[in-house]
User: Fold this.
Amino acid sequence: MQSQDHEELRYYLALALAPKVGSGVFKAIIAYSGSAKQFFKLPKGKVAKTPKVGTKLLDLRNQEEQLLRKADELIQESTKINFHILTPFHPDFPKRFKLQEDSPVVLFAQGQTDLNLERTVGIVGTRSATPYGKSATRKIIEDLAIYQPAIISGLAYGIDIEAHRAALAYNLPTIAVMGSPIDRIYPAVHRKTAESIMGTGTLISEYSPGSTMVPGNFPARNRIIASLSDALIVVEAAEKGGALITAEIAYSYDKEIFAVPGNLQSQYSEGCNLLIKKMKANIYTGPNDVAEALFWSKPGEVKTQKTLLDFTNRDADERKILEILQKKGEVEIDFLSISTEIPLGLLSSKLLALEFEGIVKSLPGKKYKLL
Assistant:
């Protein structure tokens, strides 16, 4: 662990996995208390004033020893059955979670645990994939292989498992986001594929070993797929279903979304065509669509060095923005706001104007860069 010793981890897990403590409540507690351990030491009056918490979690303080025992058992079990516990203090915890308020506060992982790979593409679709959908999935991954992205999906029937298997076939790392506990492969018929994934990629879950598997876990995991993906490709989807939910979440996260257009008479093309119609997804026509949107270059490709821009005719705020982008490359909007001391509302307006001029490009994760 980085910056988190064993004692801190015990308290972190004790609080994160306590009943009625979701990620939003957990983050509110940490923001107010400073640490999970400190929460258990605060006077009751201060605990009651914690935003989003109030008095409803006061009884947690009486369960400190019980919760710590469960945390100890979990840490011991991680060694016994070989899984990793990832918190924000761990170097492999996804940095892409940083800007998502609803992101998990702890992950359980098996395999290669680096979840901060440079390039990621999520591929999702219906569980009832047609031969066309399966073929399209394999072709997409074959064409993307030259860019060496990690392929992210949900280990489910249909498009998901086809994406994982194609990634393995083309020697790409693949991340399976499970809606089941980390110690339970679901569906069980995908166990062999899951074991293969662990060789070069990762199985992840926000659900601890032995926890109850409920239907709500599966829609919830869609936000993780969306968050980890720089671009999301929807291959086949009905008008309602998990793939459309994932696309809507990715859209709310400002991710690049693509949809494979399909036969107007196929129910499993309705969702993709609808995303395109509503302009929430671009039409996927080939790998260059993704590469251009994410500014990827092919291995060995040398990009022409651009001439430095002359900012002298810009107003003071624009000069600050452009100078930082020129110096830093890709920059998150929060960092820009802090560095330039420009309020977020005004900064967003300035960035939009610069984007219309073709000077600045918005990227997934609320980042910006010079064109």
Notes: The chain has 15 helices and twelve strands. The chain has three domains: 1-80, 120-294, 316-370. The longest strand covers residues 107-111.
